[in-house]
Specification:
Elements lengths: L24 H8 L2 H9 L5 H17 L7 H21 L25 H23 L13 H14 L2 H16 L19 H35 L3 E8 L7 E8 L8 H4 L3 H16 L2 H6 L27 E3 L9 H15 L1 E3 L6 E3 L96 E2 L5 E2 L30 H8 L3 H8 L4 H20 L4 H11 L5 H17 L14 H8 L12 H17 L43 H14 L4 H19 L16
Antiparallel strand pairs: 1-2, 2-3, 4-5, 6-7
Length: 734
């Protein structure tokens, strides 16, 4: 049968997209008339108001439209289940105004009924941005479903991994999450001390009780305003390309009616600085302007009327919260707000890494690759069990094996000792073979290392000596040049001990006098007795203790952390040490090559050649400190990725603030800085510790460099660690 050709002048109306609607026009009109009642039920504070509304609508719908339908009992039961779901979805989909609504649209800042969070939802709130996100991204990249062209991981994949990680979390973390859920459900988005108890409202007139409740709701809206403003600024930048500042001021109930100033900003310069960082005085200027305007625009009676009981004494002219001063690679804007802080976020990274390993993969004993396993049936080895890759403390600066490893060569003894002792001769820090250098082993050694009872060549033993090898009785024997390390009781050549010495380096007291510094200087310079500082320092130290307790550390890292924590006076420095621990745990047995020796501070170079012993360092004089700082900044700039260095940047300056904030996805984005182990970024923190010891934390240059080091370490932790390399066979076994 031939088809009839449609008339070219007629166009058929397009069917509505989304499939055939399940309602008739009469049913849609009937349901639409009930939308105001549905919204009212949602805003109601009565428990079960929405469920009651839906049951009534369902009964009325059946009476109105199904009264003539003939169905069996089974068919009716199934039809009612389908109708229940359809009605719920219909009201959900039609609850909001359409985009065609005329007139300006404003944000709905009304207080909504709160629901108790699920455990894994609260887990996401606390840990996603700083801990879970980089871990889940690594998980996604290793997933068979991974698609490089997909801009973001699927939401379902993210939620599934978070739920599995949450199920494997420790009881301590789950207790914190449970407490967070309770606090979120009960809290009014401000401290309890700022409010009169709700129960006390029963003792006042109904009108006063209503005013208090309205002010509590107002405070909840005010506390949510900074985040709303920030989202608005981000949306404006994404859609219009506009950047700038949004500022509001008004009376805050928890401040006794005093003014609170709220900022929202978006946009950063090429170097990663926000508008407030580029113009430090802009914030205070805007505060004065908007507060002056608010005093003229908002009557004093209205300000006092919004105050909550017990907050009158807190009334101030301006209330502005602090925000982080150092830029983040993931944020292009900022808002002045007081967000709910994540609990021990920085200390949780390593634990989540271990959970990810348990859920997704593990390294085999030969370190040959990654093997996927079932998350619930994994029998994971301990931190060191079953791993034969090289340890961080078995590497020298040029990647050679230290004593205690298999690889060795010809030449004279070198200076590094292992935990149990060393038997091979190893190249020193620069790859050259020294005649003799010094690091005593804990239990004993044979070549080039002195033990507790005697030595064989080039090292002074426990009782003292002059050159060559000296045993317990002071007898001189053997050939070789003088050793460089004296013990606790005496020594002639190399480094003098605590009580005396004749050549090499002076003892502690003489060197301190020569440098023009004494222990009293340390107390006056670094012993900050401010109660607020001491409390903050104690909290950071407590967080560090918790971080260290999460997972066993190798001996070299324990010793390194103990030495770094000995430098007092800076909370920022302690936070950098925490990031350093996270980074070393992240790379584990993949330390990579050492940081480049070319250009590093001479004082650090000498300390490394002397075996990295704490007593081999003496407090820096002013001249030595200035030289070290100049060399440290130049070295730090030279090992940055090229993308971080601005055009025409002066490498001899101390301008860390001009370094560009970059986004990185792999360790290859940090070709010179992704260096773990004793010869890695640890050396930078040692230099910062010496700076802190010699001059204290008052220098802005010191603080900026410490914050930049922390930022770099946080990004190194966020990218996946490289797969472990297979261990090369020993030359002696060939």
């Amino acid at each position: 049968m031939a088809r009839t050709r449609r008339s070219a002048g007629k166009k058929e109306a397009k069917a509505p997209t989304g499939g055939k609607p399940w309602t008739t026009e009469r049913q849609r009109a009937w349901l639409t008339a009930l939308l105001p009642q549905h919204k009212e039920a949602q805003r109601s504070k009565t428990r079960g108001a929405v469920a009651t509304f839906r049951r009534k609508v369902m009964d009325d719908f059946v009476q109105e439209f199904w009264k003539d339908k003939v169905m069996s009992a089974e068919e009716r039961k199934n039809a009612l289940e389908v109708l229940k779901t359809r009605l719920r979805d219909w009201f959900y989909n039609h609850n909001r105004d359409t985009e065609s609504t005329k007139g300006a649209k404003v944000l709905d800042l009304r207080v909504r009924k709160k629901k108790r969070l699920a455990g894994w939802h609260a887990y996401t709130h606390l840990y996603y941005d700083d801990v879970l996100k980089p871990v889940i991204q690594e998980h996604w990249r290793k997933s068979p479903e991974y698609n490089p062209e997909m801009p973001d991981m699927p939401l379902e994949f993210r939620n599934e991994v978070i739920q599995r990680l949450y199920a494997l979390e420790s009881d301590e973390v789950k207790e914190r999450i449970a407490q967070y859920i309770d606090d979120e459900f009960k809290r009014l988005d401000c401290d309890d001390d700022n409010f009169a108890e709700v129960d006390e409202d029963a003792e006042v007139e109904p009108e006063e009780a209503a005013r208090r409740q309205a002010n509590r709701n107002l405070q909840t809206q005010i506390d949510a305003l900074p985040k709303t403003m920030q989202k608005m600024c981000e949306q404006v930048r994404k859609e219009l390309g506009f950047v700038g500042v949004v500022c509001f001021v008004g009376p805050a109930p928890k401040e006794g009616g005093g003014f609170a100033v709220v900022f929202g900003t978006d946009g950063r310069t090429q170097s990663g600085r926000s508008i407030f960082q580029l113009h430090p005085t802009l914030e205070s200027q805007l505060q004065r302007i908007v507060v002056d305007f608010a005093e003229k625009a908002i009557p004093i009676e209205k300000r006092l009327a919004c105050a909550l009981p017990g907050t009158e004494q807190k009334r101030v002219e301006i209330t502005v919260s602090d925000s982080p001063s150092h830029p983040s690679s993931s944020n292009t804007g900022s808002s002045k707000s007081t967000p709910v802080k994540s609990l021990d976020v920085s200390t949780h990274q390593s634990a989540v890494q271990r959970l990810l390993a348990k859920v997704m993969y593990r390294f085999d004993k030969q370190g040959a690759g990654v093997h996927s396993v079932d998350g619930e049936d994994v029998d994971m080895a301990g931190p060191t069990e079953g791993r034969e890759g090289r340890r961080d403390d078995e590497l020298t600066d040029d990647g050679e094996n230290a004593p205690g490893s298999d690889k060795g060569g010809d030449g004279n003894p070198s200076s590094a000792a292992g935990d149990e002792g060393g038997t091979s001769e190893t190249a020193n820090d620069d790859g050259d073979k020294d005649d003799a250098s010094s690091a005593a082993d804990e239990e004993g050694g044979t070549n080039g290392v002195a033990d507790d009872e005697g030595g064989t060549s080039g090292v002074v033993n426990d009782e003292g000596g002059t050159s060559g090898v000296v045993n317990d009785d002071g007898d001189k024997g053997g050939d070789g040049n003088p050793g460089s390390a004296a013990d606790e009781e005496g020594g002639m050549n190399g480094v003098a001990n605590d009580e005396g010495g004749t050549s090499g380096t002076a003892n502690d007291e003489d060197q301190a006098a020569e440098n023009g510094s004494t222990e009293d200087d340390d107390v006056s310079r670094n012993d900050n007795q401010d109660p607020e500082f001491l409390a903050a320092e104690a909290k950071v130290n407590k967080d560090l203790d918790d971080l260290i307790a999460l997972q066993a550390m190798p001996k070299w890292l324990r010793d390194a952390v103990n030495m770094l924590r000995g430098f007092k006076g800076s909370i920022e420095y302690l936070e950098a040490v925490a990031w350093f621990i996270n980074f070393e745990r992240h790379v584990e047995h993949n330390p990579g090559k050492p940081l480049q020796a070319d250009g590093r501070p001479a004082v650090l170079d000498n300390w490394i050649h002397n075996g990295r012993r704490p007593k081999a360092h003496r407090k820096l004089t002013k001249e030595q400190l200035k030289t070290m700082c100049d060399e440290l900044f130049k070295w730090w700039f030279s090992i940055q990725p090229p993308e971080r260095i601005p055009p025409d940047f002066n490498m001899s300056s101390r301008d860390c603030a001009s370094l560009i904030i970059i986004d990185t996805n792999t360790h290859e984005d940090w070709p010179k800085l992704y260096r773990g182990g004793v010869n890695g970024i640890y050396g930078v923190l040692v230099c910062l510790g010496w700076w802190l010891e010699a001059a204290g934390p008052s220098s802005a240059e010191f603080t900026m460099l410490v914050e930049d080091v922390s930022w770099v370490l946080s990004n190194l932790v966020a990218v996946p660690a490289p797969a472990p390399e297979a261990k090369k066979p020993s030359s002696r076994r060939r």
